[in-house]
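Justification of resources, computational component.

The compute hours requested in this renewal are based largely on the per-chain cost of generating structure records like the one below. Each record pairs the submitted sequence with a full structure-token output. That output is archived, and it is also reused by downstream analysis tasks.
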Amino acid sequence: MELRGKVALVTGGNGGLGQRICHALAREGVHIAAMYAQSKDQAEGVARDLASQYQINAAAFGCDITDGAAVENLVAAVTARFGRLDILINDAAFNKSVPFQDLDGLTIDLWEKIMAVNLTGPMRLIKAAAPALKASGAGRIVNISSVAGLGPTGSSIAYAVSKAGLIHLTRCMAVALAPETLVNCVAPGLLEGTRATANLRPEQIERSAASSLLQKAANKDDCADMVVTMCRTDTMTGQTIVIDAGRIFH
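The structure output for this chain reads:
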């Protein structure tokens, strides 16, 4: 698919990986709606940089993706601002480090917040965006999961389960939205310089990098480039690609 002139909504667009995804898409001529939850000034700065650097249209939009009405309003605002919506990138996520053995520390409130942001949030966004993506004639959805969704690892049991659910949601939505909209997923391993990694315990970070075949963290630009590939493809859907420097094979 030719990406130039398309419009992408990137949730978590002001985050460490989200910014890289915004830049990778903008380099292809994609107009960017960068969604943020709290950091308005940062997100607006990202939008200004994108517009200036790539001569595309870009704007920041605030939204609480756990609020159904807010998500509906977000999609309406993006389509009103840009006139269309072709691409949805579900990158927004929340985590908090709780050792797997600490079941008391994994409170139901924390479980529900992680699920609400990491799994129900993308579901809300996909449902809200589906009509506009179908109308574009070539809709693309890319979910950002994690290798924690493929094995019992990550910052907490809740985080791992939420990311496993996102991988299967990718498959189910690929079925539900075919043939007009393609749905794929990127599952990064440890990424340096992200909010999610900042919430990990130091021993987790060290163990993750040391246990990879390449002895290093995954690369955010590699992940962003894979997102672009998934937006460009015409014949791949329902797939999850792992980028983790060689830790998990699936």
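The chain is about 45% helix and 15% strand. The mean pLDDT is 93.
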